[in-house]
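INPUT
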Amino acid sequence: MSKKNKEFVEKITAMEDDFAQWYTDVVKQAELVEYGQVRGTMIIKPYGYAIWENIKNELDRMIKETGHSNVAFPLFIPESLLQKEADHVEGFAPEVAWVTHGGNEELVERIAVRPTSEVLFCDYYSKNIHSYRDLPKLYNQWANVVRWEKTTRPFLRSSEFHWQEGHTAHATDEDAKQETDRMLNVYADLVEHYLAIPVLRGRKTDKEKFAGAKYTLTIEALMHDGKALQSGTSHHFGTGFAEAFNITYLDENGKSQFVHQTSWGVSTRIMGALIMVHGDNRGLVVPPRIAPIQAMIVPIAQHKEGVLDKAYELRDQLKSLVRVDIDASDKMPGWKFNEYEMKGIPVRIEMGPKDIENKQVVLVRRDTGEKEFVALDDLQERLPALLEEVQQNLYDKALTHRNEMTREAKNMDEFKQAVEKGGFIKAMWCGDLACEEKIKEETTATSRCIPFEQEKIANSCVCCGKEAKEMVYWARAY
Amino acid sequence: MSKKNKEFVEKITAMEDDFAQWYTDVVKQAELVEYGQVRGTMIIKPYGYAIWENIKNELDRMIKETGHSNVAFPLFIPESLLQKEADHVEGFAPEVAWVTHGGNEELVERIAVRPTSEVLFCDYYSKNIHSYRDLPKLYNQWANVVRWEKTTRPFLRSSEFHWQEGHTAHATDEDAKQETDRMLNVYADLVEHYLAIPVLRGRKTDKEKFAGAKYTLTIEALMHDGKALQSGTSHHFGTGFAEAFNITYLDENGKSQFVHQTSWGVSTRIMGALIMVHGDNRGLVVPPRIAPIQAMIVPIAQHKEGVLDKAYELRDQLKSLVRVDIDASDKMPGWKFNEYEMKGIPVRIEMGPKDIENKQVVLVRRDTGEKEFVALDDLQERLPALLEEVQQNLYDKALTHRNEMTREAKNMDEFKQAVEKGGFIKAMWCGDLACEEKIKEETTATSRCIPFEQEKIANSCVCCGKEAKEMVYWARAY
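OUTPUT
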């Protein structure tokens, strides 16, 4: 179908009817992603990539401001290197894509396409760290990684995905602990202040932690359908990898010590969160701070004399203030309204002959649909302020939704009822793996995090009734 | 060896003695790159990556300003897709890394790790281009690609490298031709104005063109040792790929037409050019416009009261004007001088007790070694101006070198003598592949480009003596 004939945007499935289909429809209709030829790979299209690039730019700035340097490590890992840390290889080997031939030659040793790069950084650190003066090492890379997943979905679980992975080495356990905390807070800042998504901060249980980590910190967000999404993780490795890779340094007294390491990552999965937290039945909703286009000018009756000139003039006036674009194509305004609502552009600016006469424009918010008439003289002040209001409202709505969808459970009956309603469940836990596994088996809910902000809901474990150690957030999750 | 004891930078091989070893020494001592574990892969270290990031940021801006959108296409290509265009697969198949297993399963079809992404974009365009209204498609991606090379060297030829690859589709041959020209000019602008490297612009011979292209445009630079380096290429595909992948659109008259395509790329190879054009026996020399640190403050007698305070004050005054850093470590000034000369930092700022007393600093240029005393009051004006002088001088020096190393040859004797002296050789060519191959066989020089600026040096081909068609630049090359 040519665009000329496509006067109306194709309808998308209502999220109440089929959330998974709604998601797929939005991803497609908002032109974010298309499937690649190899199973589970994705083509990130210009609009999807522009959003990711804005997220990336903010996060990259934060990573640099906290003292880290970008590097580029290889895509390829020799099999023997991947096997050096036992827990780690066990966690990742089943989903590795293996290169066995270079050109026409069969390789002597199989090569893993990196599923994550801990072992590469460890190998490097073992050769490049000698003295306490070489510490800390604070490296980050923006990279693609591959995990051969059984079931895949755009952004949420793709066999190749894009991310940043930080890998650091420190002189003391305390330094590594502080780094793990610091980066979790950077992630929370990014997701809350730029993506307008409130997050829970906490620690993963041992069952859910990263393969090879001492502990994993996580930020967890709640999607519109009541399922949770892990949105960023920061791992404290202790000296586990350092012992496996023999990464030592001479301290100030000339004594050999193992380094203490961390790693942390945020991936294109976060795009899935963005879609599922803010989207609605008209499509995507992009928070202004990361929107590639913050305001789209749609001229009304643009064939009338002077309308297009005025619209372009307006664009030129606004472009140093906000990311603004204009659609002067010959499509009907109604088509354009649908198109930019589908793409989640935060504000639409309508301008027709009457508006020009009255020296005003109409601003239409994507998040609430509210319209307001604004005098041209006031627009340079009003538009940026409105964008901030939209940003704040998206966050507030998401927070309200999460609060409404967070329930307490004191026993398994309450737990099971809560699971059926969706959302987070706050429940006490004895700390035993057996209870965590039983809960998962009976409800398909998993432990999301042991929050830093603990509450004492009850004295006993929601599952076994024995003495509770901690409160845990549980949920069905992506 | 711990840094504490490393009071003197290790010597590097003189370029006159062994240019290849000099290159390897600079790459290592300036901390640009280290080898990865898999043959021919590289770890780009913080300083190397910071230079690449600056190049990337400038080029990305230019690519966007010329109307292109960034996207991300998959790393993986099914073997059958790679085979769709005959010339293309013939050119790349011998150096493909093949994935044969996903986790524990053997794949039904082998997967290529992309050596370049033409076929992926073609497959996408065949599904996404329908009408003339969908054209042009102007896509670019920053990506890693893999070519299983026999001999590798950091930056110059690595089995994995980083680049941007633009892939565009147009309604007419003329549009595609203009795009091919436009991007070659963007590359020339980048390399000349930011990397301070003069380039020859021209067309590749059919022998040297890209596998599957109608023609290839190139920019060619001359290294310090007299060998040439291809520094960026822009390919016009005509309708070759469109026919193989059936990429058609309906024109304004409703008639089905093949699209006309281009692709163009600049890679981390350009880092090799940077090193080999500007470097000297004291190490790397980085042009100011892409230098991560443009000026390094080295306090003199920093243990004396007030010196460090003043040095930090200076840094704070300068940091909004230039990219400035300070080395306040307890290493000796002489060690620091060597270190930052090795890293090619354009200007060193020395400041000691006497300078503070005299309200001045000493500026030392990396390119010429010249020193000048500058009053603190004049520094904010002088430093940026000096950086521009350094930038210009690097370009001028490289241009003078290239001019001195460019010779004419009217017959094979002259050609052979010229080849032994190194540099570019301007010689007439009849246009026959046989002569081009003979020249390569007898001299190891290859045709670098048929320059846009033609000169008529002689009437007959330098090789066969038959009527000459064009003047060609020849050289031994990386």
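end of record. The two ends of chain B are 34 Å apart (CA to CA).
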